[in-house]
Amino acid sequence: MSVKGGQLGDFHLVQSGIAGAGHKRYIGERFSCRFCGRSSETVTFKKKAHAIPEFLGNHQLILNSECDSCNEHFGNTIEPHLEKYTLPFRALAGVTNKARKTPRHSDKKIGALQMDRHTNNLTVTLSDDDVVKFGDRNLISWGMERKPFVPYLAHKALCKIACSVIDESFLQFFEPTLDWLNPLNTHDIGITPTLVVETLTPGAKYNSCVYRLYLRNTNTFPHCLFWIAFGSYALMTVVPTRLDLKEGIDLLSEVPYVPDSRSEEEIVKFGHQVHVEHDFSSREFMSLPHEVYMKFSSIEEATPLHTNVKSNIDIT
């Protein structure tokens, strides 16, 4: 399985939406859990189950058809790994978390990094003054180190989001993934490589969480792509469907990138998208580095080892 540029070809958009702040919106049938299959006769539905985790910026899209037991299970087992994996993206873009605050990143060389979403200023406190490289025209770069996470579980959390935002009429296609997500089952899904594509769109900033789900009915794996964007970043991954289990399926496939929706003028001004592909099939803890390249309207050194970068941030 490889990734290529171009259009989506025989993939068709079947679900899309935006989730941020604002009035609550609800998905699914109440009191019937789409993950474990239990009803209000045996489990409770008292908690507000967010279809997309709040740490990705969703404070309004609620999944009715998720019981409290499954909600707690996902929150304790798979979502923490997605939270750690996405932290650099969210910290750089100022995506608000469950507490409605912008997250703070730190590692061995960066004491603290946080975006002020009100002023669009990014403050970086350095533990090592050699970590940031200054270039021409206010261009700087550095490396960020994620907290250790399990890629397999982070991918599983992305698939859980896909199965949460999808309309009930499409759930039949996702029976293998729903069985895999069901805490009452021991079924496993092994996809090698487990494709996760990071896409940086320079100059763009999604103020809300944007998602799209694509399906195709062919004899080629994969049959479903899930794409979710927040800040200046997007993630795309494969979600297993029952179409993937048919006989005669071709496992050698080229997967397209989601096309860049910016105008030609924006692309010329800010630059082309940057795609980074990962295999998330590993079940071992790993710390994945993230290289950052940014251009700022101004940079000032506030105190020793403390840099305050001003507004009009362009992640390149």
In short:
With 316 residues, this protein is of the alpha+beta class. Helix content is 17%, strand content 31%.
Q: What order do the helices and strands come in, and which of them pair?
A:
Elements: E1 2-4, E2 12-19, E3 25-27, E4 61-63, H1 68-77, H2 79-93, E5 104-105, E6 110-116, E7 121-126, E8 133-134, E9 139-145, H3 151-165, H4 175-181, E10 195-200, E11 206-215, E12 224-231, E13 233-238, E14 254-256, H5 264-270, E15 274-279, E16 289-295, E17 299-303, E18 306-309, E19 314-315
Parallel strand pairs: 1-14, 3-4
Antiparallel strand pairs: 2-11, 5-6, 6-7, 7-18, 8-9, 9-16, 10-13, 10-15, 11-12, 12-13, 16-19, 17-18
Helix pairs in contact: 2-3
Q: How is this structure best described in words?
A:
With 316 residues, the protein is of the alpha+beta class. It has one domain. Helix content is 17%, strand content 31%. It has five helices and 19 strands. The protein has helices at residues 68-77, 79-93, 151-165, 175-181, 264-270; strands at 2-4, 12-19, 25-27, 61-63, 104-105, 110-116, 121-126, 133-134, 139-145, 195-200, 206-215, 224-231, 233-238, 254-256, 274-279, 289-295, 299-303, 306-309, 314-315. The strands form five sheets. The protein has a six-stranded antiparallel beta sheet. Strands 5-6-7-18-17 form a five-stranded antiparallel beta sheet, covered by helices on one side. Strands 8-9-16-19 form a four-stranded antiparallel beta sheet, with no helix packed on it. Helix 2 (79-93) packs across helix 3.
